[in-house]
Protein backbone atom coordinates (compact mmCIF):
# COMPACT_ATOMS: atom_id res chain seq x y z
CA UNK A 1 0.00 0.00 0.00
CA UNK A 2 1.23 3.50 -0.73
CA UNK A 3 2.29 5.59 2.21
CA UNK A 4 0.41 8.78 2.91
CA UNK A 5 2.15 12.12 2.57
CA UNK A 6 2.84 13.80 5.90
CA UNK A 7 0.41 16.65 5.21
CA UNK A 8 -2.33 17.22 2.67
CA UNK A 9 -2.64 20.97 2.37
CA UNK A 10 -5.45 22.26 0.17
CA UNK A 11 -3.44 24.87 -1.67
CA UNK A 12 -4.43 26.42 -4.99
CA UNK A 13 -2.77 23.67 -7.02
CA UNK A 14 -4.35 20.89 -4.96
CA UNK A 15 -7.74 22.61 -5.24
CA UNK A 16 -7.40 22.70 -9.03
CA UNK A 17 -6.22 19.10 -9.16
CA UNK A 18 -8.93 17.74 -6.88
CA UNK A 19 -11.68 20.06 -8.05
CA UNK A 20 -14.00 17.47 -9.64
CA UNK A 21 -13.40 14.98 -6.86
CA UNK A 22 -14.05 17.44 -4.05
CA UNK A 23 -16.94 19.01 -5.91
CA UNK A 24 -18.56 15.58 -6.07
CA UNK A 25 -18.00 14.98 -2.35
CA UNK A 26 -19.40 18.42 -1.62
CA UNK A 27 -22.59 17.56 -3.49
CA UNK A 28 -23.27 14.85 -0.91
CA UNK A 29 -24.60 17.49 1.48
CA UNK A 30 -27.96 16.93 -0.23
CA UNK A 31 -29.97 13.84 0.74
CA UNK A 32 -31.19 13.42 -2.85
CA UNK A 33 -27.60 13.35 -4.13
CA UNK A 34 -26.59 10.84 -1.47
CA UNK A 35 -29.32 8.54 -2.75
CA UNK A 36 -28.23 9.00 -6.37
CA UNK A 37 -24.61 8.32 -5.44
CA UNK A 38 -25.55 5.15 -3.55
CA UNK A 39 -27.64 3.90 -6.48
CA UNK A 40 -24.84 4.27 -9.05
CA UNK A 41 -21.44 5.32 -7.72
CA UNK A 42 -19.59 4.91 -11.03
CA UNK A 43 -22.20 6.88 -12.96
CA UNK A 44 -22.18 9.61 -10.36
CA UNK A 45 -18.37 9.88 -10.63
CA UNK A 46 -18.61 10.11 -14.43
CA UNK A 47 -21.27 12.78 -14.18
CA UNK A 48 -18.88 14.88 -12.09
CA UNK A 49 -15.98 14.50 -14.52
CA UNK A 50 -13.56 12.59 -12.31
CA UNK A 51 -10.42 11.26 -13.97
CA UNK A 52 -10.26 7.45 -14.29
CA UNK A 53 -7.72 7.39 -11.43
CA UNK A 54 -9.89 9.52 -9.18
CA UNK A 55 -12.94 7.42 -9.99
CA UNK A 56 -11.07 4.18 -9.19
CA UNK A 57 -9.85 5.60 -5.88
CA UNK A 58 -13.45 6.41 -4.93
CA UNK A 59 -14.91 3.07 -6.02
CA UNK A 60 -12.11 1.18 -4.26
CA UNK A 61 -12.15 3.46 -1.21
CA UNK A 62 -8.41 3.92 -1.63
CA UNK A 63 -8.31 6.86 0.75
CA UNK A 64 -4.59 7.59 0.48
CA UNK A 65 -4.67 7.52 -3.32
CA UNK A 66 -7.76 9.72 -3.23
CA UNK A 67 -5.85 12.34 -1.25
CA UNK A 68 -2.79 11.97 -3.46
CA UNK A 69 -5.13 12.84 -6.34
CA UNK A 70 -6.40 16.02 -4.75
CA UNK A 71 -9.05 15.08 -2.20
CA UNK A 72 -9.38 17.28 0.87
CA UNK A 73 -10.41 15.68 4.16
CA UNK A 74 -13.42 17.93 4.81
CA UNK A 75 -14.78 16.82 1.44
CA UNK A 76 -13.73 13.17 1.51
CA UNK A 77 -15.16 12.80 5.02
CA UNK A 78 -18.63 13.13 3.50
CA UNK A 79 -17.93 9.91 1.58
CA UNK A 80 -16.65 8.26 4.75
CA UNK A 81 -19.86 9.16 6.53
CA UNK A 82 -21.90 7.51 3.78
CA UNK A 83 -19.90 4.35 4.55
CA UNK A 84 -20.44 5.00 8.26
CA UNK A 85 -16.68 5.24 8.73
CA UNK A 86 -15.39 7.51 11.48
CA UNK A 87 -12.56 10.04 11.46
CA UNK A 88 -10.70 7.54 13.67
CA UNK A 89 -11.05 4.97 10.91
CA UNK A 90 -9.58 7.40 8.39
CA UNK A 91 -6.83 8.34 10.84
CA UNK A 92 -5.99 4.66 11.04
CA UNK A 93 -5.86 4.36 7.25
CA UNK A 94 -3.46 7.29 6.98
CA UNK A 95 -1.17 5.97 9.70
CA UNK A 96 -1.33 2.23 9.12
CA UNK A 97 -3.42 1.43 12.18
CA UNK A 98 -6.85 0.01 12.85
CA UNK A 99 -9.53 2.49 13.93
CA UNK A 100 -9.29 1.04 17.44
CA UNK A 101 -5.52 1.43 17.60
CA UNK A 102 -5.78 4.98 16.32
CA UNK A 103 -8.47 5.87 18.88
CA UNK A 104 -6.31 4.38 21.64
CA UNK A 105 -3.34 6.47 20.49
CA UNK A 106 -5.51 9.58 20.80
CA UNK A 107 -6.77 8.54 24.24
CA UNK A 108 -3.16 8.06 25.29
CA UNK A 109 -2.49 11.72 24.52
CA UNK A 110 -2.25 11.77 20.75
CA UNK A 111 0.58 11.12 18.36
CA UNK A 112 3.79 13.10 18.70
CA UNK A 113 4.81 14.14 15.21
CA UNK A 114 7.90 16.34 15.10
CA UNK B 1 -23.40 52.12 22.85
CA UNK B 2 -22.77 48.43 22.48
CA UNK B 3 -20.24 46.76 24.73
CA UNK B 4 -18.21 43.58 24.53
CA UNK B 5 -18.87 41.72 27.79
CA UNK B 6 -16.87 38.55 27.29
CA UNK B 7 -14.89 36.45 24.85
CA UNK B 8 -14.99 32.69 24.58
CA UNK B 9 -12.39 30.55 22.86
CA UNK B 10 -13.59 27.03 22.19
CA UNK B 11 -12.94 24.03 20.00
CA UNK B 12 -15.76 23.27 17.57
CA UNK B 13 -15.23 19.52 17.01
CA UNK B 14 -18.41 18.02 15.49
CA UNK B 15 -18.36 15.05 17.86
CA UNK B 16 -18.65 17.44 20.85
CA UNK B 17 -22.01 18.49 19.41
CA UNK B 18 -22.92 14.89 18.65
CA UNK B 19 -22.11 13.89 22.25
CA UNK B 20 -24.65 16.46 23.45
CA UNK B 21 -27.20 15.59 20.77
CA UNK B 22 -27.02 11.88 21.67
CA UNK B 23 -26.90 12.37 25.45
CA UNK B 24 -23.41 10.93 25.82
CA UNK B 25 -21.95 13.69 27.97
CA UNK B 26 -21.89 11.42 31.03
CA UNK B 27 -20.05 8.63 29.19
CA UNK B 28 -16.50 8.10 30.55
CA UNK B 29 -15.04 9.24 27.21
CA UNK B 30 -16.84 12.58 27.25
CA UNK B 31 -17.44 13.36 30.93
CA UNK B 32 -14.03 14.96 31.64
CA UNK B 33 -14.51 17.43 28.78
CA UNK B 34 -18.02 18.44 29.79
CA UNK B 35 -17.09 18.62 33.49
CA UNK B 36 -14.38 21.04 32.41
CA UNK B 37 -16.97 23.24 30.68
CA UNK B 38 -19.26 23.48 33.74
CA UNK B 39 -17.83 26.52 35.57
CA UNK B 40 -17.68 28.53 32.32
CA UNK B 41 -21.23 27.59 31.42
CA UNK B 42 -22.48 28.65 34.83
CA UNK B 43 -20.78 32.01 34.57
CA UNK B 44 -21.96 32.62 30.99
CA UNK B 45 -25.53 31.75 31.98
CA UNK B 46 -25.34 34.60 34.50
CA UNK B 47 -23.87 36.97 31.92
CA UNK B 48 -26.12 36.61 28.89
CA UNK B 49 -25.21 38.65 25.80
CA UNK B 50 -27.85 40.01 23.44
CA UNK B 51 -25.72 39.04 20.45
CA UNK B 52 -22.93 36.51 19.96
CA UNK B 53 -20.40 37.37 17.25
CA UNK B 54 -19.07 33.93 16.31
CA UNK B 55 -15.80 33.68 14.41
CA UNK B 56 -15.66 30.31 12.70
CA UNK B 57 -14.91 28.51 9.48
CA UNK B 58 -17.18 26.58 7.18
CA UNK B 59 -16.17 22.98 6.44
CA UNK B 60 -17.08 22.37 2.79
CA UNK B 61 -20.76 23.01 3.43
CA UNK B 62 -21.74 26.58 2.55
CA UNK B 63 -18.42 27.58 1.04
CA UNK B 64 -17.27 25.32 -1.76
CA UNK B 65 -14.29 25.32 -4.06
CA UNK B 66 -15.55 27.90 -6.52
CA UNK B 67 -15.15 30.96 -4.34
CA UNK B 68 -13.14 31.08 -1.14
CA UNK B 69 -13.52 34.39 0.70
CA UNK B 70 -10.78 35.12 3.21
CA UNK B 71 -13.08 37.01 5.61
CA UNK B 72 -16.86 37.14 5.47
CA UNK B 73 -19.79 38.28 7.59
CA UNK B 74 -23.31 36.88 7.60
CA UNK B 75 -25.84 39.63 7.04
CA UNK B 76 -29.07 37.60 7.02
CA UNK B 77 -32.05 37.70 9.36
CA UNK B 78 -31.62 33.99 10.08
CA UNK B 79 -29.39 31.04 9.24
CA UNK B 80 -30.45 27.45 8.71
CA UNK B 81 -28.44 24.63 10.23
CA UNK B 82 -26.41 22.92 7.47
CA UNK B 83 -26.75 19.34 6.28
CA UNK B 84 -23.07 18.41 6.26
CA UNK B 85 -23.61 15.09 4.53
CA UNK B 86 -25.37 13.18 7.29
CA UNK B 87 -28.48 15.27 8.00
CA UNK B 88 -28.93 18.45 10.02
CA UNK B 89 -28.14 18.73 13.73
CA UNK B 90 -31.39 18.88 15.67
CA UNK B 91 -30.70 22.33 17.12
CA UNK B 92 -32.65 25.56 16.67
CA UNK B 93 -32.10 27.66 13.60
CA UNK B 94 -29.90 30.63 14.25
CA UNK B 95 -31.44 34.09 14.44
CA UNK B 96 -29.28 36.84 12.99
CA UNK B 97 -28.66 40.44 14.03
CA UNK B 98 -28.75 42.08 10.59
CA UNK B 99 -28.44 45.67 11.85
CA UNK B 100 -25.28 44.85 13.76
CA UNK B 101 -24.01 42.81 10.78
CA UNK B 102 -24.45 45.79 8.49
CA UNK B 103 -22.74 48.11 10.94
CA UNK B 104 -19.79 45.74 11.26
CA UNK B 105 -19.41 45.35 7.49
CA UNK B 106 -19.43 49.13 6.96
CA UNK B 107 -17.05 49.87 9.82
CA UNK B 108 -14.62 47.12 8.87
CA UNK B 109 -14.59 48.19 5.22
CA UNK B 110 -13.83 51.75 6.34
CA UNK B 111 -11.07 50.26 8.46
CA UNK B 112 -9.56 48.69 5.27
CA UNK B 113 -10.77 45.13 5.84
CA UNK B 114 -12.35 43.87 2.62
CA UNK B 115 -15.23 41.76 3.85
CA UNK B 116 -17.35 39.34 1.80
CA UNK B 117 -21.03 39.38 2.74
CA UNK B 118 -23.21 36.31 3.09
CA UNK B 119 -26.86 37.10 2.55
CA UNK B 120 -27.64 33.40 2.60
CA UNK B 121 -25.67 31.01 4.75
CA UNK B 122 -26.29 27.59 6.25
CA UNK B 123 -24.20 27.37 9.40
CA UNK B 124 -22.30 24.15 10.11
CA UNK B 125 -20.75 22.61 13.22
CA UNK B 126 -18.11 25.33 13.28
CA UNK B 127 -20.80 27.70 14.54
CA UNK B 128 -23.43 25.47 16.13
CA UNK B 129 -21.07 23.45 18.35
CA UNK B 130 -19.71 26.62 20.04
CA UNK B 131 -23.31 27.74 20.59
CA UNK B 132 -23.96 24.38 22.27
CA UNK B 133 -20.81 24.77 24.36
CA UNK B 134 -22.25 28.09 25.54
CA UNK B 135 -25.82 26.88 25.90
CA UNK B 136 -26.29 23.09 26.09
CA UNK B 137 -30.08 23.14 26.43
CA UNK B 138 -31.42 25.85 24.13
CA UNK B 139 -34.95 24.43 23.91
CA UNK B 140 -36.77 25.98 20.95
CA UNK B 141 -34.45 28.95 20.49
CA UNK B 142 -30.86 30.00 21.19
CA UNK B 143 -30.65 32.60 23.97
CA UNK B 144 -29.04 35.24 21.73
CA UNK B 145 -28.91 36.51 18.18
CA UNK B 146 -25.78 35.72 16.17
CA UNK B 147 -23.47 37.46 13.73
CA UNK B 148 -21.37 34.83 11.92
CA UNK B 149 -17.87 35.88 10.94
CA UNK B 150 -16.17 33.48 8.55
CA UNK B 151 -12.45 32.99 8.16
CA UNK B 152 -10.87 30.82 5.49
CA UNK B 153 -8.70 28.31 7.30
CA UNK B 154 -9.31 25.45 4.83
CA UNK B 155 -7.54 26.66 1.71
CA UNK B 156 -3.87 27.64 1.75
CA UNK B 157 -2.84 30.44 1.98
CA UNK B 158 -4.98 31.29 4.96
CA UNK B 159 -4.86 34.86 6.29
CA UNK B 160 -1.90 35.46 8.57
CA UNK B 161 -2.34 35.26 12.32
CA UNK B 162 -1.33 38.92 12.48
CA UNK B 163 -4.11 39.86 10.06
CA UNK B 164 -6.62 37.90 12.14
CA UNK B 165 -5.52 39.71 15.29
CA UNK B 166 -5.79 43.07 13.52
CA UNK B 167 -9.25 42.13 12.24
CA UNK B 168 -10.24 41.37 15.81
CA UNK B 169 -9.03 44.76 17.00
CA UNK B 170 -11.03 46.46 14.25
CA UNK B 171 -14.01 44.26 15.10
CA UNK B 172 -13.85 45.34 18.74
CA UNK B 173 -13.83 49.02 17.70
CA UNK B 174 -16.71 48.39 15.32
CA UNK B 175 -18.84 46.64 17.94
CA UNK B 176 -18.21 49.39 20.50
CA UNK B 177 -19.31 52.03 18.01
CA UNK B 178 -22.70 50.41 17.38
CA UNK B 179 -25.21 53.00 18.60
CA UNK B 180 -27.46 50.70 20.61
CA UNK B 181 -27.09 49.61 24.20
CA UNK B 182 -26.55 45.93 23.61
CA UNK B 183 -24.25 43.40 25.21
CA UNK B 184 -22.08 41.42 22.84
CA UNK B 185 -19.99 38.28 23.35
CA UNK B 186 -17.31 37.30 20.87
CA UNK B 187 -16.51 33.65 20.17
CA UNK B 188 -13.23 32.49 18.65
CA UNK B 189 -13.58 28.87 17.61
CA UNK B 190 -11.58 25.89 16.40
CA UNK B 191 -8.40 24.14 17.52
CA UNK B 192 -6.52 23.17 19.43
CA UNK B 193 -3.78 21.01 17.87
CA UNK B 194 -5.11 18.39 15.49
CA UNK B 195 -4.51 16.90 12.09
CA UNK B 196 -7.09 14.77 10.30
CA UNK B 197 -5.30 13.48 7.21
CA UNK B 198 -1.84 12.36 6.12
CA UNK B 199 0.86 10.42 7.90
CA UNK B 200 0.79 13.00 10.71
CA UNK B 201 -2.94 12.33 11.39
CA UNK B 202 -3.61 12.16 15.11
CA UNK B 203 -0.97 14.77 15.93
CA UNK B 204 -1.48 16.38 19.33
CA UNK B 205 1.01 18.96 20.64
CA UNK B 206 0.17 19.59 24.27
CA UNK B 207 3.18 21.79 24.85
CA UNK B 208 2.16 24.13 22.04
CA UNK B 209 -1.47 24.11 23.16
CA UNK B 210 -0.57 24.99 26.76
CA UNK B 211 1.64 27.82 25.54
CA UNK B 212 -1.18 29.09 23.32
CA UNK B 213 -3.79 28.88 26.09
CA UNK B 214 -1.64 31.12 28.28
CA UNK B 215 -0.42 33.50 25.59
CA UNK B 216 -3.88 34.17 24.16
CA UNK B 217 -4.49 36.13 27.36
CA UNK B 218 -1.13 37.68 28.08
CA UNK B 219 0.88 37.75 24.85
CA UNK B 220 -1.42 37.68 21.83
CA UNK B 221 1.20 39.55 19.82
CA UNK B 222 3.50 36.56 20.18
CA UNK B 223 0.84 34.28 18.68
CA UNK B 224 0.11 36.82 15.96
CA UNK B 225 3.77 36.69 14.94
CA UNK B 226 3.66 32.97 14.17
CA UNK B 227 3.52 32.09 10.47
CA UNK B 228 0.95 29.75 8.94
CA UNK B 229 3.79 27.28 8.45
CA UNK B 230 4.47 27.49 12.20
CA UNK B 231 0.83 26.70 12.93
CA UNK B 232 0.69 23.79 10.51
CA UNK B 233 3.96 22.33 11.76
CA UNK B 234 3.24 22.72 15.49
CA UNK B 235 -0.56 22.44 15.67
CA UNK B 236 -1.32 20.37 12.54
CA UNK B 237 -2.94 21.08 9.21
CA UNK B 238 -6.26 21.68 10.97
CA UNK B 239 -4.75 23.22 14.12
CA UNK B 240 -4.25 26.39 12.09
CA UNK B 241 -7.88 27.07 13.03
CA UNK B 242 -6.36 28.62 16.16
CA UNK B 243 -5.80 31.84 14.21
CA UNK B 244 -9.53 32.43 14.73
CA UNK B 245 -8.96 32.71 18.48
CA UNK B 246 -6.87 35.78 17.70
CA UNK B 247 -9.85 37.50 16.10
CA UNK B 248 -11.75 37.05 19.37
CA UNK B 249 -8.78 38.18 21.46
CA UNK B 250 -8.29 41.27 19.33
CA UNK B 251 -11.91 42.27 19.86
CA UNK B 252 -11.46 42.35 23.65
CA UNK B 253 -10.03 45.38 25.40
CA UNK B 254 -6.60 45.39 27.00
CA UNK B 255 -8.18 44.78 30.35
CA UNK B 256 -9.49 41.23 30.63
CA UNK B 257 -9.88 38.62 33.32
CA UNK B 258 -9.63 34.87 32.76
CA UNK B 259 -12.85 33.43 34.15
CA UNK B 260 -12.11 29.78 33.41
CA UNK B 261 -10.29 27.46 31.08
CA UNK B 262 -10.08 23.75 30.45
CA UNK B 263 -8.01 21.48 28.22
CA UNK B 264 -8.71 17.87 27.35
CA UNK B 265 -7.32 15.22 25.00
CA UNK B 266 -8.99 13.82 23.02
CA UNK B 267 -12.29 14.93 21.56
CA UNK B 268 -12.38 12.67 18.53
CA UNK B 269 -9.00 13.40 16.87
CA UNK B 270 -8.51 16.78 18.51
CA UNK B 271 -7.10 18.44 21.59
CA UNK B 272 -10.12 20.35 22.89
CA UNK B 273 -10.04 23.49 24.98
CA UNK B 274 -12.17 26.29 26.27
CA UNK B 275 -11.00 29.64 27.60
CA UNK B 276 -13.39 32.31 28.84
CA UNK B 277 -12.40 35.93 29.39
CA UNK B 278 -14.45 38.70 30.96
CA UNK B 279 -13.86 42.03 29.25
CA UNK B 280 -13.38 44.58 32.00
CA UNK B 281 -13.61 47.43 29.52
CA UNK B 282 -11.76 50.71 29.48
CA UNK B 283 -12.32 51.26 33.21
CA UNK B 284 -10.80 47.92 34.16
CA UNK B 285 -13.50 47.42 36.80
CA UNK B 286 -14.99 43.98 37.35
CA UNK B 287 -18.53 44.45 36.17
CA UNK B 288 -21.76 43.08 37.57
Describe the structure in brief.
The complex is a heterodimer of chains A (114) and B (288). Chain A is mainly α and 114 residues long.
Can you tell me about this structure?
The complex is a heterodimer of chains A (114) and B (288). Chain A is mostly helical. Chain A has 9 helices and no strands. Chain A has helices at residues 12-17, 19-26, 31-39, 41-47, 52-59, 63-68, 73-82, 87-95, 99-107. By secondary structure, chain B is α/β, with parallel strands linked by helices. Chain B has a domain at 3-184 and 247-260: Protocatechuate 4,5-dioxygenase, Chain B (3-Layer(aba) Sandwich). In chain B, the strands form 2 sheets. Chain B has an 8-stranded mixed β-sheet, sandwiched between helices. Chain A binds chain B through residues 3-12, 15, 19, 22-23, 25-26, 28-31, 34, 67, 72-78, 81-82, 87-88, 90-91, 94-95, 102, 105-107, 109-113, and chain B through 15, 59-61, 64-65, 82-87, 154-157, 193, 195-206, 232, 237-238, 265-266, 268-269, 271.
- Overall morphology of chain B: globular
Runs of chain A in which pLDDT lies below 50 for 5 or more consecutive residues are none
How large is the count of helical segments of chain A? 9
The assigned structural class of chain A equals mainly alpha
Give a quick set of tags describing it.
heterodimer, A: 114 residues, mainly alpha, 2 domains, B: 288 residues, alpha/beta, Protocatechuate 4,5-dioxygenase, Chain B, 8-stranded mixed sheet, 9 helices
Question: What's the layout of helices and strands?
Answer:
The complex is a heterodimer of chains A (114) and B (288).
Chain A (H helix, E strand, L loop, with lengths): L11 H6 L1 H8 L4 H9 L1 H7 L4 H8 L3 H6 L4 H10 L4 H9 L3 H9 L7
Helix pairs in contact in A: 2-7, 3-4, 8-9
Chain B lengths: L2 E8 L3 H8 L9 H15 L5 E6 L14 E4 L3 E2 L14 E2 L2 H13 L5 E3 L6 H10 L10 E7 L9 H16 L6 E7 L16 H13 L1 H5 L3 H8 L7 H9 L4 E12 L2 E10 L9
Parallel strand pairs in B: 1-8, 2-7, 2-8, 3-6
Antiparallel strand pairs in B: 1-10, 3-7, 4-5, 9-10
Helix pairs in contact in B: 1-4, 3-5, 5-9
Amino acid sequence: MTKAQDNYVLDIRQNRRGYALNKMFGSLTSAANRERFAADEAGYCDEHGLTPEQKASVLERDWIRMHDLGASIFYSFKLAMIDKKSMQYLGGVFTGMTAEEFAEALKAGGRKCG
Amino acid sequence: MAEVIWGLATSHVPSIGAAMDHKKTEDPYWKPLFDGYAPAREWMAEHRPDVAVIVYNDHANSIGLDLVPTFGIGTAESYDVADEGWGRRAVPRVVGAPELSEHLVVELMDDSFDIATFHQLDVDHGLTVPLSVYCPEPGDAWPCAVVPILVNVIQYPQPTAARCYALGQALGRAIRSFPKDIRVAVFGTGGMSHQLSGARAGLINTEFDRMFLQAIETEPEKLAALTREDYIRDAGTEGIELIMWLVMRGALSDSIRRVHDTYHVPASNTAAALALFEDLGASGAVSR
